[in-house]
Amino acid sequence: MSTIKEHLSLDHRRCDEIFATMEEKASKSLEEAKELCQEFISQTERHFQMEERVMFVEFETKTGMTQGPTQMMRHEHTQMRALMKDMLSALEDGNKDRFFGNSETLMILMQQHNMKEEQMLYPMAQQHLNADSDRIVAMMDSIIVE
User: I need a surface site. Which of 33, 67, 73, 113 has the fewest CB within 10 A?
Assistant: First the structure.
């Protein structure tokens, strides 16, 4: 079984790949990018839920830190959700400029966000939750997003 840090970092890469493919498709046809955009949003939402419903809760319970890094990550998730919603809306409206404006902003935000998680939060979480790593990864894997 992978560690919490490995599991979530790999999931970042998976979401990044869908994002890159979606942007590539959108440069050729906005219509063709819609399905990939919906998949990207769904997979990214699942990733957020794995963190928010499982890992963050476990970390906060174990450390007592509720106003620290997890609060900031939740705030950034909210910002990214709004950008993803706007990207999909731009695709549905056939507005290429709005889509790429949002996707560019989202990409920068995701890169900064993922770096903070992978270099700071995930190692801290792994350190505090190492004994429960297998249980936590299994709980994250069981997350299903409608």
Answer: 67
